[in-house]
């Protein structure tokens, strides 16, 4: 059996793949956080809960409405994103003139409400969501076995991340968004409906979280706490990439997933903390993050 | 002192219409930033094709007047008519779509956008041109300027079109800030301190551009500290102090009031 640094090649690549899958989720979630923070200047603590709502909506849709995976992948982000727009219109907009800390507290409260409601209704134990027929099985690559669904998750996440990056960095709409992050008042004075843009941006960020939730449903147990477990890592990823940086969120998400995966191989005890160690180092050396703009 | 309604010609000698031609009319405009009362009953009228300046010392309320017109202050009372339409209840983006272009004092160049992206950012607010009095669509003179026209006017911007906006010199940034609103088709321009901190040669260029815009029929409200720059351009001047209009001086009256203005403005 081929070994690298005393580690069997299959184990190494297996963990690398797992790391990339986790990284894809980190990228999707931190991208949503970055988009929201960029324009609204709100640290969206409800992001983990909105990811969980995506997974739960797919699960409940399958159980009660017979919604298949592919339909869920399209409909759930739209529905949860629309819920996000309602939250922005009814709650976040009312506190937009206050210190950003209030936004953090409000979204933290929302996360507790979403989680608590679902814990009351369904308990804390996880439920399983089946892998769709078309994505079951896997490929024998010689050096590793690649499950089809995991490969799909990676591809889907990368495509969505690229699409969002393209939207923000290469289109007129994205230029509005980028300008709006710098000076929303002036952008509005130019004739752009900034309040609508803010609502849609929050909806987009929430929809990305819900999309990640649907992708995650067949991989991880669907439970009300699945988002809160992930959120703290995603925040670390956002800090490392640079708050509000779109490219930083995507690349750092993937890189941190890989680093975490490789740490599991070489020094498993540190796997849960390695991302936070990186975060501390980045904060010490480059406080604005790897891709953030220095103040 | 001549009143706004008495005046019948611009410095170009072009005919100026009566009240129906009013592009901007402020009546008893008050504005507040939080608890701070910054405008105290501002009254002014600007007619189509006029270039009017707001003169005054720092803190007189000139920039606040422009920001109040754009609904960019905390609270307002009074009346603002833009082309005859009451704009008091309108959000800033709706005001822009009445054909108003605002160029802020701080220039507002977006660092995350290139020069060309900055130019293309503001949407067309009057893309099909202004309705003429006979109902026909007017031609190029009221449509927004094309990128080619803007680059012809400001060749520096063309050379640096792929640079980040904030990497330009102060003069180039000011040209960009002005050019940005010319593309939108706005025909009522609110320009705040566009010559601040710029070299005389840049000011001369900006002055030429303003004259060209005026010749195209644009209406311009210019907040300006640089009296020497503003004096030869304007049809009328409003002198502001303590958040209200103290006096209106026409271009014809200006030579006789030079000494007074120099004393009041501290120039």
Radius of gyration of chain B: 18 Å
- Helix and strand succession of chain B? EEEHEEHEHHHHEHEHEEH
Low-confidence stretches of chain A: none
Largest sheet of chain B: 6 strands, mixed
Shape of chain B: globular
**Ends distance of chain B:** 22 Å
**Largest sheet report of chain A:** 2 strands, antiparallel
Low-confidence stretches of chain B: 1-20, 127-142
Lateral arrangement of strands in the main beta sheet of chain A: 1-2
Query: What's the multimeric state?
Result: heterodimer
The structure class of chain A reads mainly alpha
Element pattern of chain A in H and E: EEHHHHEEHHHHHHH
Shape by Cα distribution of chain A: globular
- Radius of gyration of CA atoms of chain A, rounded to a whole number: 19 Å
- Tally of individual domains of chain B: 1
Q: How would you explain this protein's 3D organization?
A:
The complex is a heterodimer of chains A (295) and B (267). With 295 residues, chain A is mostly helical. Chain A has one domain. Chain A has a two-stranded antiparallel sheet with strand order 1-2. In chain A, strands 3-4 form a two-stranded antiparallel sheet. In chain A, a hairpin with a 4-residue loop joins strand 3 and strand 4. The radius of gyration of chain A is 19 Å and the shape is globular. The model of chain A has no long low-confidence stretch (mean pLDDT 93). Chain B is of the alpha/beta class and 267 residues long. Chain B has a single domain, classed as P-loop containing nucleotide triphosphate hydrolases (Rossmann fold). Chain B has nine helices and ten strands. In chain B, the strands form two sheets. In chain B, strands 6-7-8-3-9-10 form a six-stranded mixed beta sheet, with helices on both faces. A four-stranded antiparallel beta sheet of chain B has the order 2-1-4-5, with helices on one face. The N terminus of chain B is likely disordered. Classes of the chains: A mainly alpha (295), B alpha/beta (267). Chains A and B meet through helix 6 and helix 7 of A and helix 2 of B.
């Amino acid at each position: 059996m081929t070994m690298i640094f005393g580690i069997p090649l299959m184990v190494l690549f297996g963990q690398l793949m797992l790391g990339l899958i986790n990284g894809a989720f980190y990228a999707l979630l931190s991208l949503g956080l970055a988009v929201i923070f960029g324009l609204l200047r709100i640290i969206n603590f409800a992001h983990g809960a909105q990811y969980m709502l995506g997974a739960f909506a797919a699960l409940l849709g399958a159980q009660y409405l017979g919604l298949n995976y592919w339909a869920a992948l399209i409909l759930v982000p739209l529905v949860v994103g629309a819920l996000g727009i309602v939250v922005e219109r009814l709650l976040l907009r009312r506190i937009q003139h206050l210190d950003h800390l209030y936004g953090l507290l409000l979204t933290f409260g929302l996360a507790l409400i979403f989680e608590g409601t679902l814990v009351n209704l369904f308990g804390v134990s996880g439920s399983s969501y089946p892998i769709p027929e078309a994505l079951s099985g896997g490929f024998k690559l010689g050096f590793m076995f690649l499950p089809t669904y995991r490969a799909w998750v990676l591809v889907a996440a990368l495509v969505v991340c690229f699409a969002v990056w393209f939207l923000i960095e290469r289109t007129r709409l994205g230029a509005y968004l980028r300008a709006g992050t710098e000076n929303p008042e002036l952008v509005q004075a130019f004739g752009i409906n900034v309040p609508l843009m803010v609502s849609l941006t929050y909806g987009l960020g929430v929809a990305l979280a819900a999309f990640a939730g649907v992708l995650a449903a067949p991989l991880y147990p669907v439970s009300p706490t699945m988002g809160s477990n992930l959120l703290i890592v995603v925040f670390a990823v956002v800090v490392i990439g640079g708050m509000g940086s779109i490219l930083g969120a995507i690349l750092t998400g993937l890189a941190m997933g890989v680093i975490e995966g490789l740490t599991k191989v070489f020094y498993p005890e540190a796997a849960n903390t390695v991302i936070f160690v990186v975060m501390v180092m980045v904060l010490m050396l480059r406080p604005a993050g790897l891709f953030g703009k220095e103040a | 002192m001549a009143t706004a309604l008495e005046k019948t010609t611009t410095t170009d000698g072009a005919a100026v219409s009566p009240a129906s031609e009013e592009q901007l009319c402020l009546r008893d405009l008050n504005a507040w930033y939080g608890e701070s009362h910054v405008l105290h009953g501002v009254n002014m009228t600007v007619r189509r094709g006029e270039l009017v300046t707001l003169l005054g010392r720092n803190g007189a309320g000139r920039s606040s007047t422009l920001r109040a017109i754009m609904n960019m202050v905390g609270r307002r009372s009074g009346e603002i008519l833009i082309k005859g339409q009451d704009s008091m209840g309108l959000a800033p983006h709706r005001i822009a779509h009445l054909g108003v272009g605002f160029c802020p004092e701080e220039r507002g160049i977006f660092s995350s956008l290139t020069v060309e992206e900055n130019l293309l950012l503001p949407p067309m607010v009057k893309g099909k041109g202004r309705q003429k009095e006979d109902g026909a669509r007017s031609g190029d003179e009221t449509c927004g300027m094309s990128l080619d026209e803007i680059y012809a006017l400001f060749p520096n911007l063309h050379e640096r079109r792929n640079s980040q906006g904030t990497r330009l010199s102060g003069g180039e940034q000011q040209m960009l800030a002005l050019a940005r609103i010319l593309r939108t088709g706005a025909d009522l321009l609110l320009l705040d301190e566009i010559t601040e901190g710029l070299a005389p040669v840049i000011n001369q260029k900006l002055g030429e551009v303003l004259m060209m815009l005026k010749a195209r029929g644009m209406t311009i409200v210019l907040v300006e500290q640089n009296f020497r720059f503003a004096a030869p351009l304007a049809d009328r001047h409003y002198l502001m102090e303590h958040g209200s209009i103290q006096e209106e001086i026409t271009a014809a009256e200006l030579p006789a009031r030079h000494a007074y203005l120099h004393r009041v403005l501290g120039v």
